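BUG: 3D viewer hangs when loading the predicted structure for this chain

Environment: internal workstation, default settings.
Expected: structure renders.
Actual: progress bar stalls at 90%.

Input used:
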Amino acid sequence: MSSNRATYVIAGSAIGGAIAYFLLKARRRRSPGAVHRIDIKSVPQKMEALLETVERCAYDVSGRLENMRRRVMESLEAGRRGYDESEGGFRRKVHTFESKNDQIAAKVHRAIDELNRTILTLEKSILDPLYHLGSVVRGIRRGVRTLAG
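Structure tokens produced before the viewer hung:
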């Protein structure tokens, strides 16, 4: 239901309720024959008073509806702001987590590269001469065996 329709339905209900109230109130005070004793000259004044009462009621209902609409809109806006703030906080935390993860991965890669370079250096400086020395010793043994016989 659109807000204009709701306003008209509520205003119409208030007007109808006010009219029914006054008619029932008047009926309780008068006897059934009192309708014939109505002063025709006072009808416009009574209608004016009824109209003023209906207008006051409609104004009151309209004010309450507007107040309620404003509170609902403020509530929705506060909820939206809370969602945006928490979503931004979560995004910052995820970004921080990703950054730290990337830093850790980069450090691990650097450590592995360093270990690889260290092993290569160790192989070149210690193991290569040892392998070379072993080859020399093996060559000398074969040479001595072949010479001996």
